[in-house]
Amino acid sequence: MTDSSRQLAEQLQKRFGETLLANIDAVGEVTIEVAGDDLIEVATALRDEPAFSFEILLDVCGVDYANHGKDEWATEETTTSGFSRGVTAATAGRLKAVTEDLVVEKPRSAKRFAAVYHLLSIANNRRLRIRVYAPDDGLPVVPSVIPVWNSADWYEREAFDLFGILFDGHPDLRRLLTDYGFVGHPFRKDFPLSGNVEVIYDAEKQRVVYQPVSIEPRVLVPKVIRAAAVDSVDLTVAVDEEPAGEAAE
Question: pLDDT digits over 10-69, tens only?
Fold first, then answer.
């Protein structure tokens, strides 16, 4: 929290009141949360009112909060030692190797998908983050902010492509980074690591075709570094012996 971020958070709360579902000031950055129905109105005010003047939209990020706050690997207390213990088998391809009493449940978000907007005010030298949750996990839809910031065009297309978030009112919502025949959305937490299909060249058809993926899904285990293993290695180098095969003078 800084003086600038605290002042901005207070201004936002005073201006928008109960419209803000959350108003967070942490590490010198302010994040507000609004409902999808209020997004355009709030965004327009943030752009046009001199007290805010967020004239630039820097980015629109999709977020998948599936299993948020639930770690497969517990590293908070062991990061400095290089040791990481598997606590919960949360991905396909990994067997449960620990007992249930090691599982630590943490609170998770009630909604899965969100769009996060990063704003910049050159006039006031400030930054702001807006988060909007999609009310339906099965069909995540949030309003498009293209009427407010035209730069949102490709940002929203990217979030749609990678996360499957639909932006209501977008004039040309189609995939941006993946192929037209791509199946699924690769940044979703439940997307298989090996994908769903692969592309090969069919010599008989003389064209590129899709087929089911032939790679076997697997999960790589993080490298474990133990002090005992390092201590057991003899790193002593003999410097007194003459090189083999070299005649002594």
Answer: 999 999 999 999 999 998 899 999 999 999 999 999 999 999 999 999 999 999 998 776
Residue 57 belongs to some domain of the structure: yes
**What does the block give as tokens for 90?**
């949360």
- For the whole model, what pTM was predicted? 0.73
Listing DSSP states for 199-234 in one string gives EEEETTTTEEEEEE--SPP--PPPP---HHHHHTS-
Parent domain of 159: 3-65+109-187
* 10 falls within a domain: yes
Burial status of residue 12 (CB atoms within 10 A of its CB: 0-12, 13-18, 19 or more): buried
Question: Closest Cα to residue 1, out of 152, 160, 10?
Answer: 10
198 membership: H or E segment, kind and range: strand 197-202
